[in-house]
Amino acid sequence: MxxxxxxxxxxxxxTIAFVSMVMFAAVEALPGNVCTSFLQRFAQxxxxxxxxxxxxxxxxxxxxxxxWVSGAVQGDFGYSLKKRKPINELIWDRFxxxxxxxxxxxxxxxxxxxxxxxxxxxxxxxxxDLSLSGAAMLAMTIPEFVTATxxxxxxxxxxxxxxxxxxxxxxxxxxxxxPNIVLPVVVLSAVLIAHIMRMVRASxxxxxxxxxxxxxxxxxxxxxxxIRRHAVPNAMIPALNVIALTIAWLLAGVVVVEKVFNFPGxxxxxxxxxxxxxxxxxxxxxxxxxxxxxxxxxxADLAALALDPRQRRKGH
Amino acid sequence: xxxxxxxxxxxxxxxxxxxxRQAPILRGVSLELCAGETxxxxxxxxxxxxxxxxxxxxxxxxxxxxxxxxxVFDGHNMFALSEKERARLRGSSIALIPQNAxxxxxxxxxIGQQIDEALQLHTxxxxxxxxxxTVELLEKVRLPSPEEMATRYPHELSGGQQQRAAVAIALAxxxxxxxxxxxxxxxxxxxxxxxxxxxxxxxxxxxxxxxxVSHDLGVIARVADRVAVMYAGQLVEEGLTRDVLxxxxxxxxxxxxxxxxxxxxxxxxxxxxxxxxAVGSELTACAFADRCAQVREACRKGVPDLVDLGTxxxxxxxxxxxxxxxxxALREPEIRNDMxxxxxxVAISYSQPGLLDRLLNRPTKTPTVDRASxxxxxxxxxxxxxxxxxxxxxxxxxxxxxVSPRAGSITLNDGESLTAPVSRRDRxxxxxxxxxxQNADASLNPRQTIAEILSAPLQLYFGLKGQAARDKxxxxxxxxxxxxxxxxxxxxQLSGGEKQRVGVARAFAANPEVTLCDxxxxxxxxxxxxxxxxxxxxxxxxNGSSYIFVSHDLAVVRAVSDRVAVxxxxxxxxxxxxxxxxxxxxxxxxxxxxGAVLEPDPDTAPVLLADDMTEQAPPASGCxxxxxxxxxxxxxxxxxxxxxxxxxxxxxxxxxxxxEELDGDALRVAQSQDLLPTG
Amino acid sequence: MLNLLQTTVSKPSGxxxxxxxxxxxxxxxxxxxxxxxxxxxxxADAILLAxxxxxxxxxxxxxxxxxxxxxxxxxxxxxxxxAAAVIATLWGGFAGIxxxxxxxxxxxxSMRIVDAFLSMPWLLFLLLIISIxxxxxxxxxxxxxxxxxxxxxxxxxxxxxxVATRDYVTAARARGENIWPIISREMFPNLSDILxxxxxxxxxxxxxxxxxxxxxxxxxxxxxxDWGLMVAQQRSLISTAPxxxxxxxxxLSTLIIGINLLADAIGxxxxxxxxxxxxx
Lengths: 316, 679, 280
What we know:
The structure holds three protein chains of three kinds.
Chain A: H1 2-29, H2 34-39, H3 45-55, H4 61-73, E1 79-80, E2 85-86, H5 87-122, H6 127-141, H7 144-158, H8 174-208, H9 211-218, H10 223-261, H11 266-275, H12 279-307, H13 309-314
Antiparallel strand pairs in A: 1-2
Chain B: E1 6-16, E2 22-33, E3 38-42, H1 49-55, E4 65-73, E5 76-77, H2 83-89, E6 94-97, H3 101-104, H4 111-122, H5 127-140, H6 146-150, H7 159-171, E7 177-181, H8 189-206, E8 209-214, H9 217-223, E9 226-231, E10 234-240, H10 241-246, H11 251-258, E11 307-308, E12 312-314, E13 339-348, H12 355-359, E14 369-377, E15 381-385, H13 392-400, E16 407-412, H14 427-432, E17 433-436, H15 440-443, H16 450-462, H17 466-479, H18 496-508, E18 514-518, H19 526-543, E19 546-551, H20 554-560, E20 563-568, E21 571-577, H21 578-581, H22 588-595, H23 635-639, E22 644-648, E23 651-654
Parallel strand pairs in B: 3-8, 3-9, 6-7, 7-8, 15-19, 15-20, 17-18, 18-19
Antiparallel strand pairs in B: 1-2, 1-4, 4-5, 9-10, 10-12, 11-12, 13-14, 13-16, 20-21, 21-23, 22-23
Chain C: H1 2-10, H2 12-34, H3 66-72, H4 75-102, H5 104-118, H6 122-133, H7 137-164, H8 167-175, H9 179-216, H10 227-234, H11 243-269
Helix pairs in contact in C: 1-11, 2-11, 3-11, 4-7, 4-9, 5-7, 6-7, 7-9, 8-9, 9-10, 9-11, 10-11
């Protein structure tokens, strides 16, 4: 049991290490560097040399990677050339805003989606299932910026219930924030719900057609109890990992949704950083997102471990 | 006479095919069962036997509907009840014991919780009482340490234990009738024999009625008072087990009985030609007419009725005519005094010690197969027999080069080494060793035509392409008695027996010297099995190939083998000429195994020697059978390798018991009829 | 093939999916013929006109004909994502079958790396690459192709592992066939269905990704007519000229839905249960 948890933890650590390496390597492999990106057409002569020296780009890639990693571990992500500030000062406000947005969306979406998935799965091919599956298909395929634009048009412009773009004074309280995040949360949740619901539905359908559910029926177990005790716990095991994977969607979606609503989160900061060609900042944000993602996957793995006696007691 | 407990009348069940046609799976079945009685329903795949049994609970698999007739259980018309009332009866008055308990138990609930659920639904017991009752039930099904069993999850039990747990759940509601749907299929013979004896006693003790569904007449003969034989969705014969098995009236029952290989008789049993009508097809004549040796004009005029013959009923117009003679074809092997293959001290391990194991200096696991030595002569058939985990298939895979032995040598006749894996063997060596697989369904690529399947070895070994390969493929099909037009068909368009013939033809395309047969008939129905066995025998004669024939079925091995090796936990216990291995003196394990075999004869009883515990891994030292041996001598069995005792020409028994003291009694003495309740 | 098409179209969702996909592809191909105006032609006298007889979908803030722009708007997205989908299917499919066939340590270690790649929010990674390499098909096609290929690899490898344990593959191995005939003759024909459906499904997700990139300003560059970019540019005027935003949204959504429905219907027609496959 402990060895299983340790193995999962080890894999999470490996993944983060790997991701950071790939990101670093990608920046290295592509033409240009921090300085040429930043200086653009001024990237020549003494200006370039000075920048290269300041950034320590004359050192070998391995040394710089080591520096970057050891700094990141201590919470020091370096210096933003464009904003002329340590990256640390730039990200934490944005980070907490994004966490609030994403966290609320996930907390609302996951239970709701699981519930809908079960409801659709046990009523396979009935009207409820068909309409839910149809709605999920639409929510998955229509791009977030389209949904967001439509919601803004209806609720912000026509009905004027919510602001169309986020206006947050620095250090705004949660209550001040609330009206601003309703629409972004709705957009993010819709995509999440659609994906998770589809997976849970498929998983429930599998479980409902299994031998043990047939056996429970022949034991005389009432239908609601079959669903609750026999089908759902087993259906959730494979579904958990997909719930974790859809978080990837959430993270990618966050960037788009933040941009649409002009929400001061990590996503908008990243887009700014890309416009500015501020590589250290882009790298840092991508790394933070990866760590969150790996963390979510780890939680899902551990939850599956808790739910599945076969994984728990046999190992591997 | 009292009212029957279960009464099925003129029941037809089926599905609606394309175009709204009603496609029946059951055709007008009528059957009765009294309280406390056991009926066996026997038939081949697609005969509708499971559908009848489930109908007794008012259960239909999805897509099926009742066309006609009724199923009455204990005064309730099961298909007229509301879903709620049916649910109340299920699990209490009538309970099912499923075929595959491993899949029928909910994986995330502990055994105790699953029994408790049934108790909660069908009894008024309080929580504490239910807990006691759960342990009682686990005790009743004779599971070791019942308190601890209750806290285990299904995957932590062995196959036999899972089956017992399923029985405990079924007993929770004090059922009047138990339905058993092939409950021992897939279990080892010794486990099967134990479970069957247990079920027999249970039925007697509790006075419950049992409906026992099986494809195996041997099992039915052991447990059932009456037997109903199903064919193509119809009841073709029904009566007291003893009457039906001793004097079968329907030609199908006769054919079925004749096609079962017997432990005591060498030689290939007679086979039934053809295949049963497709499930759901329309019947206008006797369903068996096309396969019947005694068919007459009248048989094709209409569907015959079930005729009452006094003690039994039979659906044949000519039930009282004498049966056509059934012959067992004795094999006449042409064994040449020339070595085809020899194994010397072969050890095989699946798991290699990982880096972590080596660092921690963990002891290496005992190999899956160890000290495997035997020889095979040209034209000879060697049977490898043993239960699951005996390593018989592993040895085949090592000879085929799919796994590499850890030690020892495998040598072909001319001294060529087969110790190397496939990738390092040359083409000619590869050609000489061919394999036929258990499941023809899985061994033929569904996306290739039969011609393509047969061309692959022809191209690889002989460089044949195009028309030349096709011509050769045609002759191969002829050799396995399949028509040329099959060349352009896909495996999905063939029946199970036909697919296995293609599998055989593919192996013989290489003109092999050694053919490895891995449970080649165990996925086939008995009536088809005999034909496959005789095909293999004929081809051996024509091609002079040597066979290694792996099977868990001792009677089948007896039918086709010249010599037999008995394996336990990857170690050979006994090897020798069939006639000697199948006769006393026996190795204690051989005797255990043979004692557990069930034969379609109500007058023989199995002899249960060892208990049916499952072994996790072979013991590190001493005799492999030490933990279960009924004739264990003592510590010597645990510590010292048993000596190889030469009992006759090529007959070796690995046992510490001296030859004189080995069991000399013949096994199959007709038993008294003590155990079967009458009336 | 014809048979497959019939089964696919036999259900309404399959017919709609096929219809939408074919329609969109045809419009994209014939755009220069269909469009009444040059999609980049600005007209200072016709700014933000509501739909009328001359401009069926109105005009945008620069006086460009929305209908002509919508008709052209899919060309870049469809061609870029189609190319990326082909790359992803080819490399992901090949590597997936290969690892599934080889198995063992090679497979085990490779999968660790694949899992790590799947653990990267790829859109962010794509943004990282764009920030260095610049926007444009030359960056986007290989990156999309690579990342979606990893996801296809994972799915195909899972299926290939199952196929690799089938006895017909064991039979070929025992016969002494090399790895290539085993992959091409024994395994590939049993996996081509999955590849087809996966490829089509990923194509629809790539369209979604590409249009999101365009919307963020990293995909198509002005003045190229592109749906995502059009929405981004005209969004601020949505209260006065909703048509300039609505039509590109409509066109984009119907195309993605169409491909998605089509892929789903093909999967069902082939008897594949796509529900459990993960759409990353």
